[in-house]
Amino acid sequence: MSGTCDLERAVMALRRGGLVAFPTETVYGLGADATDAGALTRLYAVKGRPADHPVIVHLGEAAVLDDWAVAVPPVARALAARFWPGPLTLVLEAADTVSRVATGGLATVGLRVPAHPVALELLAAFGGAVAAPSANRFGRVSPTTADAVRRDLGPDVDVVLDGGSCAVGVESTIVDVSGAEPRILRLGGVTADAIASVLGAPVAVGGTTRAPGTLAAHYAPDARVVVVEDEHDLGAAVAAVDPEDAVGVLALREVLGTVGLPDAATTLSAPATVEEYARVLYRALREADDLGIDVVVAVLPPPDGLGAAVADRLRRAAASGR
Ligand code: TXA
Ligand code: MG
Q1: Any idea which ligand is nearest the CA of 215?
Q2: Please, are residues 262 and 248 in contact by the beta-carbon 8 Å criterion?
Q3: pLDDT (tens digit per residue) in 124-143
């Protein structure tokens, strides 16, 4: 875990235009000063991210929202009041303070207040806004531990703050509140039902805005990912894999208890709940690569709670065609 000394180094690094990886409750972020075009350009280069893909800007508290966004509608304030700090990103019309490098040239900005003590300490000590995509190279599995960040980004990051394993494990839910109707651009740590209960109406999911989290080929490990919709098809899915290939299985514990682990497959993880499935998902996909697994066969969880976000990430990983 990081101490006060690391925090001071991190703040200094941000002030001189450096890059700081820090924990959030969702995944680790790779941060730069959201007003510093030079630092942000380096951030995009290190991520290997196309310049037109916007990054999320992190704030220390909801009270500073109007410093970074303009024309904030009442629905945005209601969602911020209910879910911040927490795994919710609001897309709003950007204030001039936000560098247009962070917004990928868009007039809107994604803002969130993360619910992690280390992230909040960093943001409070820095005093500004920190633009931070997930701390992985573009198109790869997001990191949920400091170790995963170091392995991915190595010397390209100036300071890595260690806050342990991320409690949620999948990225924030992104809600675009800049248009006439709120719209969920990416499912994540806050469920669509929870958003709808604040808005008092169901909310549309999916959108056309530029969001790499919405690209089909995303969140992929080196191993090929095969998703199984119906748990009873697990055995057939494993049997269909080339016998030369090492197979790893990811499924709820209850599912493995019912249908059993097929012969010649390794259990990567058998989470007890959908929340645990979200928490272990990216770590399990990274471990699959470390173990030399060729094919990950994942039984999708039911779409309740975080199950919808888990299924979304697994489907995208499977669509990468690796
Ligand atoms: O949980 C999270 O959201 C993590 C942690 C670090 O906060 N961050 C994260 O960042 O997942 P990233 O860059 O990997 O994904 C950010 C997503 C992208 O899909 C991006 O396109 C979208 O947010 N986004 C950011 N600003 C946007 C905007 N103005 N309009 C539409 N989408 C936006
Ligand atoms: Mg990402």
Answers
A1: 1
A2: no
A3: 999 999 999 999 988 789 99
User: How far apart are alpha carbons 260 and 148 in whole angstroms?
Assistant: 31
Counting atoms of ligand 1 from 1, which one is nearest the CA of 211?
21
Q: CA–CA separation, 2 vs 228, rounded Å?
A: 39
User: What are residue 204's DSSP bridge partners?
Assistant: 183
CB atoms within 10 A of CB 285: 28
The winner for highest mean pLDDT among 90-99, 200-209, 311-320 is: 90-99
Closest ligand 1 atom to 109 CA:
29
Q: Which ligand is nearest to the CA of 179?
A: 1
- Per-residue CA distances from 19 to 32, 73, 123 (Å): 5, 32, 14
- Tokens in use for 253? 């514990």
Asked if 282 and 169 count as a contact pair (C-beta separation under 8 A), the reply is yes
Of all protein residues, the one whose alpha carbon is nearest to atom 21 of ligand 1 is: 211
Whole-prediction pTM: 0.95
Q: How far is the CA of 171 from the centre of ligand 2 (A)?
A: 8
